[in-house]
Design brief:
The protein contains five helices and no strands. It has 171 residues and is mainly alpha-helical. It binds fe (ii) ion (FE2).
């Protein structure tokens, strides 16, 4: 069984991961609407990944013989200013999630929950990768500086991203 403080924080994280999923799905739709199928695909894969994160937490709480408390998901934005704005918002969001994961680790240490601390390590590593991926796109966008050709090329590249459930391969 999980301690109450740990369980509450894990339940909050399930909600946050589900919110992340829907935020990226909303961004995917925005990109589709702007005629950018590659960006839309990248965000759709991002959505699929976030669902696997939520499910990984869900399964862990269940495995520890506790009940998941699902909560209402906050309305995500549906309109964005520009391509760069969407990617900047994605980076900001991932940085916020990193902070939440670190906070979960702090709680696990505080309540001496070594199993949860070990479980969370996968997410600590995952967040490093998440932030790096988004930063790379943001750097490329800054180089392109709004030029149509560059956007077209980047969109073609982002079309290549395929969903892989990496929660199944490790941890
Ligand atoms: Fe996530």
């Amino acid at each position: 069984m999980l301690k109450e403080k740990m369980l509450n924080a894990l339940n909050e994280q399930i909600n946050a991961e589900q919110y992340s999923a829907l935020l990226y799905l909303s961004m995917s739709s925005w990109f589709s609407d702007k005629g950018l199928p590659g960006f839309a695909n990248w965000m759709y894969v991002q959505y699929q990944e976030e669902l696997t994160h939520a499910n990984k937490f869900f399964n862990y709480v269940t495995e520890r013989s506790c009940k998941v408390q699902l909560k209402a998901i906050e309305q995500m934005p549906t309109e964005f200013e520009s391509i760069v704005n969407v990617v900047e918002k994605t980076l900001e969001h991932e940085q916020k999630v990193t902070g939440m994961i670190n906070n979960l680790v702090d709680i696990a240490i505080e309540v001496s929950d070594h199993a949860t601390q070990s479980f969370l390590q996968w997410f600590v590593d995952e967040q490093v990768e998440e932030e790096a991926n988004v930063e790379e796109i943001l750097d490329t966008l800054k180089l392109i500086n709004g030029q149509g050709n560059g956007i077209f090329m980047l969109d073609r590249e982002l079309r290549q991203r395929a969903f892989v459930d990496n929660t199944q391969t490790a941890g």
